[in-house]
Amino acid sequence: IGMLPSGGYTLDVDLFVEITGLSQENAEKLVAATHQVCPYSNATHGNIDVRLHTTAI
After folding, report:
1. CA of 29: how far to CAs of 32, 33, 34, in Å?
2. N or C: which end of the chain has fewer CB within 10 A?
3. Within 1-57, where are the H helices?
């Protein structure tokens, strides 16, 4: 949670995802593609900064 210059509040998110059975490169591609079609991500797009952190296990 942080302050906006206008005095309101804002949110940002660090999303940590662990995926088994994929290479790191493919796991990152999958997470990025999923983020693009996720209804929640689409609803908050432009309102909440989201940082994706992907780990292939």
Report:
1. 5, 6, 8
2. N
3. 24-37, 39-44
Q: What is the pLDDT of residue 10?
A: 86
- The residue to which tokens 């989201």 are assigned: 50
Q: Which tokens go with 40?
A: 């929640």
**Domains of the chain and CATH, by start:** 12-56 (3.30.300.20)
d(CA 16, CA 53): 5
Half-sphere exposure of 21 (CA within 13 A, CB side): 1
26, HSE (Cβ side, Cα atoms, 13 Å): 6
